[in-house]
C-alpha cells in the first residue's frame, strides 16, 4: 500500500509530505485547489512522460518520492529479475531537472521509465473519469472476466503457446517464400558451386604457385647466379675456400709460439666447413634448376583461373573462395531439404494450432462458467446503487481466428430499465450509470486483484444524495481488502472515509501555492459542512455534517 508521498517543486506544490494509512481515505477541496496535482505527481512515479514545464521553480529540480509497503504482494521475483534490491518497503523516486531530463529510481537504483511503469502496474490503479470509457472496450470486459475467474495461469500457458504458434507460422511463411525464390536461384547456385568445386581449391596454393611461377620464369638467370657462386666457393682456380685453407695453415704455424690464435683457427675451420656445405647445396640447386616450359604453362593457367575466381567473387584469397564454395554447398543442401522442412514445420504448426484451440476452449469454458456469478455480483451492487431494474449479461461470441487472449469476444449487455432490451453497455449507459457500473466492477475486482492501492478520481461524477452515500459505502467496503483513496466533491462519500485530507490554495506575495493536509475531527466537520452549504457555515450544515459522520 501507499505509505507516504513527498512532492517537491511540482506545479503549485512547493513541498508536501503526506502520510497514508490502510483502509479508506478521502481527499476533498475546492475545484482548482490542486487535487489533480497529486495524481499528476503519482503518474510521474508510474512512468508518465516528464516535462520541465511542471517545475514550480524552473531553476530547481522537481522530486516526487513515494514509499510503498509491498510485503504481501509477491513482488520479490520482479525485483530479482530486474537486478533490484528487494525490501518490504519499496521507495520509488522520480527527478526532473530544469533541462527537462528525468531520472527514475527504485530503492535508490536508477531504472528506466518502462520499469517504473511495470512496477507501478503492480502498486496502484488510478481510476480517473476517462477510464469509464474502458468499459465500452471488449478487451477490457474480457480482462474483467479473466481476473475474476482467476485465469492468470491459464492465460499465461495459452499466451506462451500462442507466441510459439505465431513464431512457427512466421517461420513457415518465410521458408515457403525462400523455397519459392530458390526455384529460380537453384541453377545459378549450382553453377557457382560447380565452378568452385571443379577448381579443386587448396589453402595457400596461390602463394606457392606465384613463387613457382617466379622461379620457372627466371631459370637461366638463377642457374647462372648459382654457377658463379659455386665457382667462387669451389672453383678450380683460386677460390674462397682455398684462401681459407691457406689462412688456417699460416695461423697453425704460429700456434706453438702464440697459443692465443687457436680460437681463430677454430672459427676459420668452422667457416670453411660451412662454406663447403653451402657450395655443395648451391651445386645441387644448380643441377636441379631446369627450364620447364610445360610446367610454366600449367602454373600460368592455374594462376589465371584463381585470379579470375578471386576477381569474380570479389575476395582476396583462396581461403575465402573455399568458404564461398561451402556456403553454396549449404544453400544447395537447404534447397534439397525444403520440401521436408516445410512438411515438418507444417505438421508442427498444425499441432500447435490444435493445442491452442484446446486451450482456448478450456479458457472459454472457465469464462462462461464464471459469467453468471459475475453478473449476479454486479447486478446486486447496481441495485444497491439506486438501479433496482438494472440487468447485466456477459455475452460470448466465438471468433473465427485465434487471438493472443483466446477465441472469445466478450460484450457486456446492459439495461437500467425494465422496458429496455439488453444492449452493449457503450451504446446505452449514461455517464452516471457507467460510473456506477465501473465502481461495481472495481469492487468485485478488488477481491480478486493482488493490487495494494486503488485511487478513484471523482468516480462519483453524475450522482448525488443517497446514491453517493451508497457509492461511499462500497468504497468503504473495498477498503477492507485494499487501500482505497477517493478524490471526491460529494460530502456523502467524504463522510465514509476513515481518513480525510483537504487540498487548498494559498496566495503569497509572489505566487500561489497548493497544500494538502489531514483534517482533525473538528476540521472534518467544518469541511463537510462547507461541502453541504458553501463557505458560509450554518448550524444546520454543521449538524448535518455531524449526522453524516455519526451514520458511518
Protein architecture, described:
Helix content is 56%, strand content 18%. By secondary structure, it is an alpha/beta fold. α6 packs antiparallel against α10, α11 crosses α13 and α16 crosses α17. 28% of the residues are buried.
Descriptive terms for the model:
552 residues, 6-stranded mixed β-sheet, elongated, alpha/beta, 56% helix, 6-stranded antiparallel β-sheet, 17 helices
The total strand number stands at 15
Helix and strand composition category: alpha/beta
Largest sheet: 6 strands, antiparallel
Helix content: 55-70%
Summarize the structure.
The protein is an alpha/beta fold and 552 residues long. The chain has helices spanning 35-45, 76-81, 113-123, 138-148, 152-198, 205-216, 219-234, 240-254, 262-288, 293-313, 318-384, 425-428, 431-446, 465-478, 491-494, 521-533, 539-550, and strands at residues 2-10, 13-19, 24-29, 62-69, 89-96, 102-106, 109-111, 124-127, 391-403, 406-415, 423-424, 453-457, 483-487, 499-507, 512-518.
Topology:
Layout: E1 2-10, E2 13-19, E3 24-29, H1 35-45, E4 62-69, H2 76-81, E5 89-96, E6 102-106, E7 109-111, H3 113-123, E8 124-127, H4 138-148, H5 152-198, H6 205-216, H7 219-234, H8 240-254, H9 262-288, H10 293-313, H11 318-384, E9 391-403, E10 406-415, E11 423-424, H12 425-428, H13 431-446, E12 453-457, H14 465-478, E13 483-487, H15 491-494, E14 499-507, E15 512-518, H16 521-533, H17 539-550
Parallel strand pairs: 3-13, 3-14, 8-12, 12-13
Antiparallel strand pairs: 1-2, 1-4, 4-5, 5-6, 6-7, 9-10, 10-11, 14-15
Helix pairs in contact: 5-11, 6-10, 7-9, 8-9, 11-13, 13-14, 16-17
Amino acid at each position: 500500500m501507499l505509505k507516504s508521498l513527498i512532492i517537491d517543486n511540482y506545479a503549485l506544490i512547493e513541498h508536501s509530505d503526506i502520510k497514508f494509512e490502510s483502509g479508506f481515505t478521502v481527499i476533498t477541496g475546492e475545484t482548482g485547489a490542486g487535487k489533480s496535482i497529486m495524481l499528476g505527481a503519482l503518474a510521474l512515479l508510474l512512468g508518465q512522460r516528464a516535462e520541465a514545464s511542471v517545475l514550480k521553480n524552473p531553476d530547481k529540480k522537481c522530486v516526487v518520492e513515494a514509499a510503498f509497503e509491498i510485503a504481501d504482494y509477491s513482488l520479490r521475483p520482479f525485483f530479482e529479475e530486474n537486478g533490484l534490491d528487494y525490501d518490504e518497503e519499496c521507495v520509488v523516486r522520480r527527478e526532473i531537472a530544469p533541462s527537462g531530463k528525468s531520472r527514475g529510481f527504485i530503492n535508490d537504483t536508477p531504472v528506466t521509465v518502462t520499469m517504473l511503469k511495470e512496477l507501478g502496474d503492480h502498486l496502484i490503479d488510478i481510476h480517473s473519469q476517462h477510464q469509464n470509457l474502458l468499459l465500452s472496450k471488449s478487451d477490457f470486459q474480457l480482462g474483467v472476466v479473466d481476473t475474476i475467474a482467476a485465469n492468470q495461469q491459464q492465460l499465461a500457458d495459452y499466451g506462451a503457446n500462442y507466441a510459439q504458434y505465431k513464431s512457427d507460422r512466421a517461420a513457415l511463411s518465410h521458408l515457403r517464400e525462400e523455397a519459392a525464390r530458390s526455384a529460380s536461384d537453384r541453377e545459378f547456385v549450382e553453377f557457382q558451386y560447380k565452378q568452385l568445386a571443379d577448381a579443386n581449391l587448396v589453402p595457400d596454393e596461390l602463394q606457392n604457385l606465384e613463387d613457382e611461377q617466379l622461379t620457372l620464369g627466371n631459370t637461366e638467370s638463377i642457374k647462372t647466379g648459382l654457377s658463379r657462386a659455386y665457382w667462387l666457393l669451389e672453383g678450380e682456380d683460386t677460390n674462397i675456400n682455398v684462401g681459407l685453407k691457406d689462412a688456417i695453415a699460416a695461423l697453425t704455424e704460429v700456434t706453438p709460439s702464440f697459443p692465443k690464435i687457436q680460437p681463430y683457427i677454430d672459427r676459420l675451420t668452422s667457416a670453411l666447413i660451412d662454406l663447403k656445405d653451402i657450395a655443395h647445396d648451391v651445386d645441387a640447386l644448380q643441377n636441379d634448376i631446369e627450364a620447364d616450359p610445360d610446367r610454366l604453362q600449367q602454373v600460368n593457367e592455374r594462376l589465371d583461373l584463381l585470379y579470375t575466381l578471386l576477381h569474380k567473387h570479389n575476395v582476396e584469397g583462396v581461403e575465402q573462395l573455399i568458404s564461398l564454395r561451402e556456403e553454396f554447398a549449404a544453400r544447395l543442401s537447404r534447397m534439397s531439404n525444403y520440401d521436408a522442412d516445410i512438411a515438418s514445420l507444417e505438421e508442427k504448426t498444425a499441432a500447435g494450432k490444435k493445442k491452442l484451440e484446446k486451450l482456448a476452449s478450456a479458457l472459454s469454458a472457465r469464462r462462461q462458467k464464471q459469467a453468471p456469478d459475475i453478473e449476479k455480483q454486479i447486478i446486486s451492487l447496481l441495485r444497491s446503487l439506486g438501479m433496482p431494474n438494472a440487468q447485466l449479461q456477459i455475452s460470448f461470441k466465438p471468433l473465427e481466428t485465434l487471438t493472443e487472449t483466446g477465441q472469445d469476444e466478450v460484450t457486456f449487455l446492459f439495461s437500467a430499465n425494465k422496458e429496455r432490451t439488453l444492449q452493449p453497455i457503450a451504446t446505452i449507459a449514461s455517464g452516471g450509470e457507467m460510473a456506477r457500473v465501473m465502481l461495481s466492477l472495481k469492487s468485485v475486482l478488488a477481491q480478486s486483484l493482488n493490487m495494494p492501492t486503488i485511487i478513484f478520481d471523482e468516480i462519483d461524477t453524475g450522482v448525488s444524495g443517497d446514491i453517493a452515500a451508497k457509492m461511499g459505502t462500497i468504497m468503504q467496503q473495498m477498503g477492507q481488502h485494499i487501500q482505497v483513496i477517493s478524490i471526491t466533491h460529494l460530502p456523502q462519500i467524504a463522510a465514509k472515509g476513515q481518513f480525510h485530507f483537504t487540498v487548498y490554495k494559498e496566495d503569497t506575495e509572489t505566487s500561489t501555492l497548493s497544500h494538502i493536509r489531514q483534517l482533525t475531527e473538528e476540521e472534518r466537520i467544518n469541511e463537510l459542512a462547507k461541502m453541504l452549504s458553501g463557505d458560509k457555515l450554518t448550524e444546520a450544515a454543521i449538524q448535518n455534517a455531524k449526522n453524516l459522520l455519526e451514520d458511518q
